Predict the 3D structure of the following.
Amino acid sequence: MIDVQNQKDIRNMPIDRVGVKNLRYPVTVLDRSNREQHTVASVSMDVNLPHHFRGTHMSRFIEILNETHRELHIDKITKILQRMKKRLEAEQASMEIRFPYFIEKKAPVSGAESLMEYQCLYQGTLADRSDFILGVDVPVTTLCPCSREMSEHGAHNQRSVVRIRVRTCKFVWIEELIEYAEQSASSPLYALLKREDEKAVTEQAYDKPMFVEDMVREVALHLEKDNRITWYAVESENMESIHNHDAYARIENLKSQ
């Protein structure tokens, strides 16, 4: 059969990235407490395309993914990228894996157990050298220091999200990044709270007011102290409860080695 993708293209226009996006795929990831966790990821894979090729072979992305046997551990990403470069005759290959990750949490007073969801990210690129980013989005509670200072009765709080992205020189657990974020917040979130738990987390948040600026600085301090982390970007975003806008802050740093 005629290989249309391999036909010559005379427009002399290379393509930076071409591939497949948002492929839903069952995967197994490493879990600190239970060794492994089964989840469903959204996978995107792409390569660069030289100017003389009309198209790439989309089916080969799926073939390469199927060869992983659903195990997309961090240490396997580079091997997948190497296969993509070789089979698709590319100079650069990239892969992004987004997936929900669940941790069993106990409510602070009642001890009621529930599963808390976090959105996670693996992002890898291979050209002359390899690059890998680990990311996690952590929902938390923040309470406004200004509101607490001014108000005679209580203070406004809101649900917030802390987004952490890191490059590392040694293995880092997803759970560790989640802990850095939750320790820096006014209060963590829980999927299940009894009345006594709700009282406890409300009072905890009141005793620990945090601006978005406070959040990113506190998380950044944890990341600075972790010698396994070579680069990080941390964002904090408040879905404001009394304003018609969100509050936002970001810190990015390439740590000196």
Observations:
- The first strand starts at residue 15 and ends at 31.
- Residues 74-87 form the longest helix (14 residues).
- The chain has one domain: 15-254.
- Residues 102 and 117 are 5 Å apart (CA to CA).
